[in-house]
Amino acid sequence: MTLASAQARPRRRIVASPGKWLTWALVAFFFVNLLGVIGTVVVNSLGRRWFSAWLPQGFTTHWYSDAWREFHLSDVLRVTLEVVAVVVISVLVGVPAAYAMARRDFPGKRLVLLLFLVPVLLPPITYGIPLATVLYKFQLAGTLLGIIAANLVPTIPFVVLTMTPFIEQIDPRIEAAARMCGARTSSVMLRVLTPLLLPGVLAAGILVLVRTVGMFELTFLSSGDSTSTLVVALYYSVFSAGIRAQQSVDAMAVIYTGFMLVLLVVALRFINPTQLVTRVQDEGARA
């Protein structure tokens, strides 16, 4: 290529419409504010004193150990991990119910689907207070069993609504072919459907896990002093009576944010709707 031809080529200019520039500006503004809020909490949790200067007057990590002892975070994290039983129960109950919704036609099916939608669409506080009243009546409030029962109300319908379209993508002729070859119902479920449903079950389980750990209203209304999860303990650390150092409260907020961030990273690692659909199609073609 000669120098003259290179000079003759027109230069490319980056041209964007005002709408695109406005969109990018709003996105940048959102992330700057988000990083500012999170950064302020993180820096304050590590600072000794922070008043009018841009940065604290020295840094330390003892606020994390103070928060761990003051708020009994070892017990709080233990209860938070025990509440993960909600995931197992939701999957064990929700997947068979989703299979029935996807494969069977019965009177009142639309009504049942509507009932599944109600606890997912409504704010938890609207049915959380009557639910807590029932739990107190049967002396289940303040116990681990009561927290699990309260969180099952929105999580089981969530699993059903997540798994129903996933099951509908599986060709029923695959099951029919397995039955024609002499496979029993248990063999069809374990050897044919389970490999196909495993990505969807994993996705639903991780989403329920993130939802349960972050659920405040139902857990707050049904928990007690010794059965508080991390999000409820964080609320008590801010609004309960007494004077507490703001740095220790921020340290607890950083611990909670880090815990949720780990769950989010795990969820994004395993959940990809495009891959799930492709996996079902590939498995169905091989079958």
Low-confidence region ranges: 273-287
**Beta-strand proportion:** under 5%
Number of continuous helical runs: 14
Global Rg: 26 Å
Helix content: over 70%
Mean pLDDT: 82
Number of strands: 0
Report the sheet with the most strands, covering strand number, pairing sense and barrel closure. Answer: none
Quote the distance from N terminus to C terminus.
55 Å
H/E element order = HHHHHHHHHHHHHH
Structural class: mainly alpha
Q: What is the general shape? A: globular
Blueprint of the fold:
Elements: H1 3-8, H2 18-46, H3 62-70, H4 73-82, H5 85-103, H6 109-121, H7 124-137, H8 144-168, H9 172-180, H10 185-214, H11 217-222, H12 230-239, H13 246-270, H14 273-286
Folded structure, characterized:
With 287 residues, this protein is mostly helical. It has helices at residues 3-8, 18-46, 62-70, 73-82, 85-103, 109-121, 124-137, 144-168, 172-180, 185-214, 217-222, 230-239, 246-270, 273-286. Residues 273-287 have low confidence and may be disordered.
What attributes characterize this protein structure?
287 residues; mainly alpha; 0% strand; globular
Q: How would you briefly describe this protein structure?
A:
The chain is an all-alpha fold and 287 residues long. It has 14 helices and no strands.
